[in-house]
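Re-run with default settings, no changes from the original entry. Doing this only to confirm the output is reproducible before filing.
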Amino acid sequence: MRFGGVVGAKNGNGGTGAGRRSTLRKILLVGVCVAALGLVPAAAVATPGSGVSGTVVAKGTSEGKLKVKTPRGRTDVTFREITVEPGGSTGWHTHKGQLIAVVKSGTLTRTLDDCSVEVTPAGTSFIEPSGADHRHIGRNLGTEPVVLWVTYLLPEGSALSDDAAAAHCPGVR
């Protein structure tokens, strides 16, 4: 067997094999440090906010996963507070887009197109689906006002709601 060098002799770059390994270790260490810096959370270099405040006005938790669908094309996003006095109702209606609602206070009782009833107390949230086949009525059967905070996701230029004929549900007007 032949090899082209003598053990301990300097290579053409003026270094020994051990020196080359030391240089490779240093290069590897620098590379690892640079990679580790990339993993440091961005907050460490973020600038603090100034002159900004926020207030949570209502919070509601859904019973399950919320499935939000926006209309095709441009969307009007409207945020509205709605108060339904004791004994009051919204009347039967539909929406051309989805609504995300939080019940801030009181208890809202909704009767849906299939005559099923959903009761949503303060601190809960729900989505009202869009379309003429999702007519419903919201009623306050309690003794205190129902306050809703509603976000509408409607096709551009649509009315917030459209009147609908009452479903034929026993005991619901």
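The radius of gyration is 33 Å. Residues 1-9 have pLDDT under 50 and may be disordered.
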